[in-house]
Amino acid sequence: NVIQEGAQAKDADVLSYQSLVGTTISERKRKYCPDVTHPAEFGADCTTFQPIIGADPGYKSLVCFPVKGAASSTEAYAGLCFDSMVDRAFDNQLDELELVTKKQVEELAPLLRQYRDEDRFFFKEIETPASLPK
Fold first, then answer.
1. DSSP readout, 23-81?
2. Half-sphere exposure of 44 (CA within 13 A, CB side)
C-alpha cells in the first residue's frame, strides 16, 4: 500500500499524523509493528497504530517506510507499507525489504510528488452547459 500525505482536507479522514503511517511520514523513518492485535507488547512503533473501530484489519504485522523526494532528501510525503497475516513477519527482514524496494521507491517518488503538486487539477469541477442534462 502506498499512502500519500493528506495535503488537502479531503484526505484528513484517511490519514492522521498520529497513525503508524502518519508518524512514518512526519518522523521520516521506518516504523514497524510486529503484531497490531497486541500493540502494547511491542513498543513505541505499535503505539501509533490506529485500527478502524469495529473492523478486523486483516493483517497482524505492519511495516511502513517513508517515501522521500529524492535519495538525499529529508522531506517525506508518503509512506510505503507492507502487511502480513503472520505476526512478527518482518522481524529479520526489515533492512532487506527496505533495500529491495529502494530502487522502485526512488522511481515512484517523483510521480507521487507530481501528483501531489498537481492534485488540484485532477479533482476540479467540470461545468456542464445548461443545454446538456446533468
1. HHHHHTS-EEES-TTSGGGS-HHHHT--PPTT---S-SEEEEEEEESSTT---EEEEEE
2. 6
Cα separation, 74 vs 24, in Å, equals: 12
The 10s digit of each residue's pLDDT in 63-119 is 999 887 665 567 777 888 899 999 999 999 999 999 998 888 888 877 877 776 666
Cell numbers linked to 116: 501531489
**CA–CA gap between residue 43 and residue 88 (Å, rounded):** 13
Task: Please state whether the predicted TM-score (pTM) of the whole model is above 0.85.
Answer: no
- For 108, the 3-state DSSP assignment is helix
- Which residue in the block uniquely carries the three cell numbers 484517511? 14
